[in-house]
Amino acid sequence: MELEDIRREYTKGGLRRKDLLADPIAQFDFWLKQAIDAGLTDPTAMTVATVDESGQPFQRIVLLKDVDQNGFIFYTNLGSRKAQQIEANSKVSLHFPWHPLERQVHITGVAEKLSAVENMKYFSSRPKASQLAAIASKQSSRISARGVLEGKFLELKKKFEQGEIPVPSFWGGFRIKPQSIEFWQGGEHRLHDRFLFSKDAEEWHIDRLAP
After folding, report:
1. Is residue 2 part of a domain?
2. Any idea which positions bind substrate (predicted)?
């Protein structure tokens, strides 16, 4: 089979303006809950797109850790490539691909660093192995072999066997304050439904987009 022959119809049902909540964050919460209830694998997984200083885009998948009226939160090594790119250009794009539900959500916004208190609160809630991994991995740096990483992990595991693990200074979170949120629902004959919420001052405006 040729790649160009791989296609299917989207039959889960359409999306109408009357079905949308007035608040896009509430609408996102509603769809996220449905994705979780549907048993989707990694429903909180999202693509984070950033741009480097030369204009080259980069994408990677991270997990959403919180969302409220202030924005969408994820955590990372602050020395990582994505964090460095955000430092130079805080405009970020997020994408949630909920394929089994034939849905997508696309978000554009501006990233801001979380406070030390917010970082500490989340870090202390993580499993100990995840805390150790955050310290062991100098994210995005080149390493000679996996054994180097595993050795560092075991070294730290022994060091902090009894005591609490401090929040590393090079680890923290970002909040993406949304400027636009698009909800996409697959439709038959490629007549998909797309609704774009755009923020003007403190108000959200809704537009239907052609598929």
Report:
1. no
2. 7-10, 65, 122, 126, 130, 190-192
Q: Across all residues in the chain, what is the average pLDDT?
A: 93
Which entry of 16, 17, 190, 208 is annotated as an active-site residue? 190
Contacts of 71 (CB under 8 A, 6+ apart): 109, 112, 175, 176, 177, 178
pLDDT of residue 152: 77
Q: Confirm or deny that 156 is annotated as ligand binding.
A: no
Residue 4 has pLDDT above 80, yes or no: yes
Tokens 């054994």 correspond to what residue? 147
**CATH, residue 12:** 2.30.110.10
Residue 112 lies in a domain: yes
Domain that holds residue 33: 8-116+166-208
Instruction: Say whether 148 counts as a known binding-site residue.
Output: no
Domain count of the fold of the chain: 1
Structural tokens at position 37: 């209830």
The confidence score (pLDDT) of residue 54 equals 96
User: 126 labelled as ligand-binding?
Assistant: yes
Is position 196 within any domain? yes
Residue 159 has pLDDT above 90, yes or no: no
In a domain, residue 203? The reply is: yes
**Is 61 known as a binding-site position?**
yes
Q: Which two tokens stand for residue 114?
A: 């979380």
